[in-house]
Write a structure and sequence with these properties.
alpha/beta; Rossmann fold; six-stranded mixed beta sheet; 32 helices; globular; membrane; ATP hydrolysis activity
Length: 829
Amino acid sequence: MSDISKSFGGVAALTDVSLEVLPGEVHALLGENGAGKSTLMNVATGTIRPDAGTMVFRGELIDNIDPRDAGRLGIAFVHQHPAVLPDMTVFENLLVALPASVFAEGPSREEFARSLLDRVNLRVHLSDRVETLTVAQKHLLEIAKAIAVKPALLVLDEPTAPLGEESVRMLFRLVREFVAGGTSVVYITHRLAEVRELADRVTVLRDGRLRATAVVEEISDRELLSLIVGRQLDSTFPPKYDGPEGEEPNFVLDRLSGPGFKDVSVAARRGEIIGVAGVVGNGQSDLLRSLAGLSQFDGAVTINGTGVSSKRLLSEAAYLPADRLSEGLMMRLTVRENAAVSALTRFRTRLLLSRKRELGMVGDTLGSLSVKAASLDAPVSSLSGGNQQKVMVARALLSEPELVLADEPTQGVDVGARAEIYQILREVSASGIPVIVASSDAKELEGLCDTVIVMSRGHVVDVLRGDELTEERMIHAAVSSTTQTVGVEDVAEAELDERAAARRAKVRRFVQGDYAPSVLLVAVMVLLGAFIFAQNDRYLGAFNISAMLLLVSALGFIAMGQTIALLTGGIDLSVGPLVGFLVVIGSFFILNESSGASILLGLAAMLGTSIVVGLVNGTLIRYVRFTAIAATLTVYIALQGMSFILRPTAEGFINSEVSRAITTKLGPIPIAFVVLVLLVLGLEYALRKTPWGWRLRAAGSDEESARRVGVEINPTIVMAYVATSVLTFLGAIMLMTQIGVGDPAQGVAYTLSSITAVVLGGTSLLGGRGTFVGTLFGSMLLVQVLNATVFLRLDQMWQYILQGVLILAAAILYAVARSSRRRRVARKA
């Protein structure tokens, strides 16, 4: 890479940076947070295009590459924030990210995928949804994707930050294997010990500029630190507490038990910091979550002589979670809003907040942590990982808490900022606020903490103080413990045999999956149908079944299109007016006196119009940057207006022969409904088994991650809206035969009806997950409910009440399921 420059909004991220990586070497890339390390590698892998500079790979000049091009060239990138798609399964993540040729190496795609996971020691099921994985497991999945392509250049961005000791050793072993095979590795890290262990050469960036490149053996740690931070660091860790021995503790845990841990007891005096050590996943994070009031606990917590409850801790404890993206930050809010949200009462002037006070206090706190951001009102998502971590620390300081809980507080943070965070935690503890730090870095706990409890399987297996507090003692205590796992769930699973546990896991995956809502809808339809039939035996008559299925056919086609829009994370409000507009167009061509050519021309005009509308919607959203609601609402208004311009009143009777042909039945079952079912099955197969479906869900699950793994977002979403409109065209044909006239007022109601059917079917309004099968059942239930009001002789008002109840029930069930999943994931993390 030669003379690479890149600016964002006028702020220079890289200025004339050059980097040379030799074949078969590990090249470490160091620098503070925001120094430009990740940006430089994003340029190398095509995620970001540089403003200036050139790149040569294996002797060839490369220009304007994207992530998929980089993959074909043999460049793989393990991102600091894993480019995984949370709404998709582990197996689907591999299918989206990896070229099809990679899977040819195994007897089957599934077997090859399992071998990949085994190679990185990732013990999860291929059908597990990625959102249920821990942070460490997501990183291991990211590593598995990278090694699968046998890259010529492997970029590792802070790969060990969330990993335990065993996983770190595994990663180092893989790196050495790849280097021995000729692969070049760019290794981004803040841990100098890892540089010494792995790297051949090192390059240092500061403030977006190249500061030095050197052979690792020829440069000292002190020199590296000076290059990284631009000054000499006297010591990484501040002096430990040195107070009187007889002082009473200001923080006491007495036999604390909760989900994932049991009988934890420890005490600390004012100025002392408590550390929590152990192999990742042995109760450390569970303990901190309970102390933050996020989980219930038994036992006593005493702060400054006063017992505190879980409810009080929820409001008074400052918690820095290990997973800053999912739990720590609100990524759509600004830097200022994220830092200030827990301290709003401090900025209050009588009834209102003082903007001046907020800006002053937030600015001072962020400044003391050297947070690098374009402005206080820049989106927090635009910051580097380390600077995002500092924003969480700033929020904790601003909230004036009774207790500070830090889970992996320096994860992804540069050496200079680490020293600043350590100093701040020491100052907080000295002020009388208890501080507890959980970290997978034993050296960090040794240098920072006064007391360390070592946990294994939820129990405290050792308490270290003074001269006993060493890295070796912590690691030995953690790995040599024979303590049994605690927790009701763990004990129950241990008593089950392996086959029963596998069945339970299978059921759990189904309940968490996309098809569970469909089963629920079928059950509701059967119960509702049985109740109506008990009141009126004509309900299951051939005429009523046929009439309902015709209505389902019209709504179903439109709802299928709406499903595609929602899967991308968008929505299409224009489907209702589009249906009406297409019927109006048809009413000029498909008349009783029309020739066959005229009818075909009318159908072609309807199809062409739907394609144009889809292209307009997609273009407005992706290229003009309208929101999906704004774009499709604009088209909604335009289509409705044009319908009334073309047909001010209902005119133009539809050809009766065409209507009869479209509504042909096999017994009581309309042919159109059979076509709908076949279309649903085809779309469902495409959604699960083809690249089109994987890309569609990837774009809706996490757009940035999808882009990083090579999904072309803009074409995918534009074509999704085209598909939505084309399916709406099929619904318009059904509506045209049912109303038999070009009525401009018809069709509008299908916008809300289609959204209702899709939501009932379990498709997420946030995108990324859903099923066409569920949408079909949602359409059937919606029509059944409307039909029920007739057979039960209910007022029309009940149609709206019952629809509202169904939507509310679906929303509540979905929210409860998602929140329970988040709690399980948090406990695992």
